[in-house]
Amino acid sequence: MKALNSLQADLNRLYEGQDTKKALKLVFNGKESALEQMRVFENGFWFVAPFVFGSTSRETLTALLSPRMTSLKDAPVVGVYIGLGYATPTAVTRAPNLKALIPMLYLSLMENATKIKALKSDLDAAINQSKLLFDYLGEGDLDFLKSYLLDEKNQERFKKAKKNQDSFFCDFWNHYYDTPEHKKAFDLFAQLIDNKKFLPEFQEEDYGIWNAYVRSVLTQRAYDLEPKNKTQMEKRYSHLWKYACMPHGLDCDTMPFKKYQYYYGNSKDMMWHVSLSINSALEHEGFLPDAVANHPLYEATTLIEGNQYAGENHLMAAKRFDQELNDPEACWNALVSTAYWAGHAKRLDLVEASWQYAIDLSKRQGWNVLHEVLRDQWAFYEYHKNDRLEKMDRTKTFLADFIRIEADALYANDTSKIRQLHAMTDLTRSYYSKINFEWKNVQTSENEQPKPRHLYEIVQYDHQHYEEIWVCYLSAANPKEMTLDDCFVLAQINGEPKIIARFTPKQTDYDRWELVSGDSDVIGYTTNTYITQQHFNTPIDAKWERDLLRKL
Prior knowledge:
Helix content is about 45%, strand content about 15%. Helix 15 (about 310-325) packs antiparallel against helix 16 (about 330-345). It starts with 5 loop residues before the first helix and ends with a strand. It has a domain at about 450-550. The relative contact order is 0.07. A six-stranded antiparallel beta sheet has the order 10-9-8-7-6-11. Strands 1-2-3-4-5 form a five-stranded antiparallel beta sheet, with helices on both faces. Strands 12-13 form a two-stranded antiparallel ribbon. With about 550 residues, it is an alpha+beta fold. The model has no long low-confidence stretch (mean pLDDT about 90). The radius of gyration is 28 Å and the shape is globular.
């Protein structure tokens, strides 16, 4: 498999053949790693470097990329969550660096006394397996984690773990991210928790890796508090506007702030409220500072309220920051936001355009570490994208040939062509002797050429045995109308597309499908991981619903 980045390649090599899921809470060399990493990029998160998977959820652990970064090893670790309960892709800081990742993963599992007891039982194996990682990093250990879990003073706290989770959170972060920026952020959090109506005066402060989280918390607090005068209104909009200028997609908490431990929200919901407020400030309250109205990001911010926003204006703003204002870091932030909104809108063209601009920007600015990672990950992305396109093209060509030969065979009742069609199937893993296409039921006229089938959709999924399958929705042979009647499942057999199963709609439940013949192992194919799809025609009696064409 083509390497994604140097960190992933190194760690996969270190832990090759080892089961680290239970002890380290990490999964290296995952079977679906390329697929999941492509999903991260396609959803707009090219500004992270995936390197390993979490063990408890659909979590891809990544290193956060930034202009001034010096090493992937030292970058903040961000968890990216896509699918399975996350309607909007979400990214959350999980550790200040790779050295602290394992303890922070243990922290996230300290939910009750039973789970903490299980974590204690995993400690010895974790200490043993983690030595490879810490040797690779040149520093680090699990001493703090071990002492924390085994300390007699903590055992009573563990009995009420749910109540004490926030204090566990503070203890771990105070130890593993002991910096002035962290102290400043947590001092602010303490004031916000103590006084639910407290909103500090706006200041340009550096909170280190908490920058995005602090700005999201202050934005939510500002939005929740109703201003009573112009001074309070100015304070409110200063906080809202600061969040609008941040790179979107990371560490967003959209709940009222009550505890240190964050809620997994998303920038989409928060920016909708920010956009609404900024528009309202101009239209109804007659208040909008000139610095905001003339800012490159102003127009982009006003458009988000419409819910159809795809990032185009953030890309325009990025170019202004770069070409007119000579502000490369503001340009980078706007490119990240472009990718986030484009990913949400499924606009791969804009995801790719912002990525390419970031590659060029990092090269021109001499951000060498960043440039190398962006460039290598683009090569990975392009390789797998082209591989998918090539396989989809081969699938389309195969179906076009099958449909053409089938129409000729039905017209001439040509047994040699029928044999040719059956040769385009593979039943190696099936107890059926052949695919039943039910050609005897096809009505044809003696002097009339049968019409070819209509092809509606091809959807690609992963598969445990075949690696990938292509689910193809078609009309019946010699169709009278453009109706949805048939479904072929294809796989690559010895490098060639073959039909391995055929489905038709159930007679008693017509929006579901049942196997007619072929490999039963592909039943329930829509529960497999979706990869990509291509649309060709729309049947008159069906609609596209999630990953499956269903009858109306």
